[in-house]
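S.,

Sequence below, as promised.
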Amino acid sequence: MKSKKGFAIGLDMDGVIIDNTDTKIRFAKRMGFTLKPEQTHAELIEKALTPEVLSELRTHLYFNPVTALQAKLVPGSLDGLHQLKKSGQRFYLISKRKYPIIARELLKKHKLWGKYFDEKNAFFVRETEEKDYHIGRLGIGLYLDDQPSTLDKLVNAKHKILFDRFNCFVKSKHRRVGSWEEFIKMVKEHGVVNF
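The prediction came back faster than expected:
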């Protein structure tokens, strides 16, 4: 992977590294709703659940340790992180998680905290503007996120890549990848400076 000293990769957490799909489907079923995997996407789930159920789901996902720690890893994310680290590429985690204690515990559970992320390269923020601030401050030139609306608001990332695992946003204006394998291949082929 080609790199440049001042150019780093930024990664979102939920939907890119952490997979809440099964947890959302199980929770919705208990509440009387049937969700397909593609309906669990953060920007689409609002159309499938009532506001009350959605609020309760978010509380369980992000503030209830029992539910939150059930989340799996997105397929290929562990290998992708390994390849980024092995290549010497600088990368950062910047996640809109209001309760970072649970987020860190989830990363520890999957053996990512300490090996790939720590206090120096993982940041938990409340608003997208804070995410963009860190992107600019850290010299992140490429940012991978699963939400088009977040990418739309980022002004400091030169290259915005949409992680579209379930092909929900085929008409997106952002460059899309459907898997970690595709993302790593893109980075290897083009280098982070040649987008």
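Confidence is low (pLDDT under 50) at residues 1-6.

Coffee later?
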